[in-house]
Write a sequence for this structure.
């Protein structure tokens, strides 16, 4: 028998895919335009969310600092001073801002102990790891221009008192010093020098703790600050040390919220240390403000925190900064 051959299956013919139509140039441009519009709509929304988050974080910082002042008050029967010069009865107590005595109440016991372990300026400020150089997150508003690194006041090797350089940590917040510059020694606010008055008790705030400013923000940037101070930078890092002296952590109501130096300073700055210079210097240095053009966060003596608008009437702001004027705060705020 002859073997039958088994036929092999015929393969099905392959089909070539039909070509897909490509995007035309006009269609591509329309898609790009739609994406650009969506991004343009999305970015402001994202920025608003970031700004709101930064504002809430700063409000929380102020809330914690206000509660720390209250805790200090409970223990010491008075709020801290804006600065405290050693006295015969308190020779070991010496601090340059209201922040130093409340350090234990904001979980900075180590910094507080290091500050008093060797209470000399050389030890407290020498090098980037010195107590005064500590970067404390709670003291910085997230949107401030100060950054999150210590400020170098003196470079290493430039001064034998500070062989490792002189460095300071920074703060966005200041205490309420009242209605005038500190050199006027007006004590109508809540914080002042110990050499001028006794510490303020909450019961001394007879205008009401709900309507008396305790602490507030300041934005550490002004586009004309360098022209006024004849320094290379417009940020205010050199004027924002939390342990650098009362001027750097003090606020007053010499001027309105978010005051900025006039542009005339850039073209015709007043002579350094003249009366015109100090007038602008104090107004800007002590002004409440923030990175938001809308206003600034303010902590009140009862521990509450509110956002005060940039347009808040200066008369209202000044009444809010006095503790015992006896006047009724006018209008809405």
């Amino acid at each position: 028998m002859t073997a039958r051959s088994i036929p092999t299956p015929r393969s099905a013919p392959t089909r070539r895919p039909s070509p897909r139509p490509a995007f035309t140039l006009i269609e591509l441009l329309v898609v790009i335009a739609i994406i650009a519009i969506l991004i343009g709509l999305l970015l402001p929304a994202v920025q608003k969310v970031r700004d709101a988050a930064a504002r809430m974080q700063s409000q929380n910082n102020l809330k914690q600092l206000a509660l720390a002042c209250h805790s200090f008050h409970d223990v010491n029967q008075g709020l801290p001073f804006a600065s405290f010069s050693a006295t015969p009865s308190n020779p070991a107590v010496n601090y340059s801002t209201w922040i130093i005595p409340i350090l234990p109440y904001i979980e900075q016991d180590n910094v507080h102990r290091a500050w008093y372990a060797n209470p000399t300026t050389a030890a407290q400020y020498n090098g980037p790891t010195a107590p005064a150089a500590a970067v404390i997150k709670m003291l910085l508003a997230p949107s401030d221009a100060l950054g999150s690194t210590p400020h170098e006041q003196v470079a290493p090797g430039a001064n034998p008192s500070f062989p490792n350089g002189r460095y300071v940590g920074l703060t966005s917040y200041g205490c309420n010093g009242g209605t005038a510059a500190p050199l006027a020694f007006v004590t109508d606010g809540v914080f002042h020098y110990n050499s001028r008055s006794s510490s303020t008790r909450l019961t001394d705030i007879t205008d009401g703790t709900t309507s008396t400013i305790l602490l507030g923000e300041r934005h550490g940037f002004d586009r004309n600050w360098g022209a006024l101070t004849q320094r290379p930078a417009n940020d205010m890092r050199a004027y924002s040390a939390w342990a650098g002296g009362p001027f750097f952590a003090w606020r007053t109501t010499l001027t309105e919220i978010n005051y900025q130096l006039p542009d005339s300073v850039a073209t015709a700055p007043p002579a350094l240390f003249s009366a015109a210079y100090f007038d602008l210097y104090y107004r800007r240095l002590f002004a409440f403000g923030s990175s938001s053009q809308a206003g600034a966060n303010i902590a009140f003596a009862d521990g509450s925190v509110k956002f005060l608008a940039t347009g808040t009437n200066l008369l209202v702001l000044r009444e809010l900064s006095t503790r015992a004027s006896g006047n009724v705060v006018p209008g809405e705020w």
